[in-house]
Design brief:
- It contains 4 helices and 5 strands.
- It has a 5-stranded mixed beta sheet with strand order 1-5-4-3-2.
- A hairpin with a 4-residue loop joins β4 and β5.
- It is globular, with a radius of gyration of 12 Å.
- It starts with a strand and ends in a 5-residue tail after the last helix.
Length: 95
């Protein structure tokens, strides 16, 4: 999979450095993956959820939420937002 963009991860870890290793692990694993559907994503990340048109990953034992759009046919993951659990629960990202 092609992940767009690593920059979002770098910017997030400037403010939340404790998320670095977990986000880096997700990034490396996602790049190696060749997911074709949500079921395949959930085989690797059982806590990934479909929320509207987004796939949301729990990061660092649910401390953070990584919100993505996945284009399976194009093998591309778009990072939409990375939030703390509290920010995610506020729901403003859905707007």
């Amino acid at each position: 999979m092609h992940v767009i963009s690593r920059k979002a991860i770098r910017e997030f870890i400037k403010e939340y450095p404790d998320a670095e290793s977990s986000l880096d692990s997700w990034y490396r694993e996602a790049k190696k993956s060749k997911w074709q559907n949500l079921a395949e994503v959930k085989e690797q990340y059982s806590h990934a959820d479909l929320v509207g048109r987004y796939i949301v990953f729990n990061i660092k034992k649910n401390s953070y939420r990584l919100i993505t759009r996945i284009r399976y046919r194009g093998q591309t993951i778009f990072i939409i937002k990375i939030l703390t659990h509290k920010q995610y629960d506020e729901g403003k990202w859905k707007v």
